[in-house]
Amino acid sequence: MNIAYQTVGDGLLDIIYVPGWVSNLDYAWIFPPLAHVFERLSAFSRLILFDKRGTGLSDRNVGFPTLEERMRDMQAVLDAAGSRRAALMGTSEGGNMCMLFAATYPEKTAALVLNGSFAKGLWAEDYPWAKTREQVEEELEAIARDWGGAFDLGNAAPSHANDREAREWLAGYLRNSASPQDAISLWRWNTEIDVRGILSAIHVPTLVLHRTGDRWVNVEEGRYVAHHIPGAKWVELPGDDHVIWAGDADRTLDEIEEFLTGIRPQPASERILLTVMFTDIVGSTSVAAELGDRGWQELVHRHDEAVRAELGRFGGSEIKTMGDGFLAIFHGPSKAIHCACAIRRRAADIGLSVRAALHTGECAKRRNDISGIAVHLASRLLDHAGAGDVIVSSTVKDLVVGSGVTFKARGEAILRDVPGSWQIYAATEAG
Question: Which candidate among 130, 157, 233, 326 keeps its CA 20 to 30 Å from the CA of 335?
Answer without folding.
Answer: 157
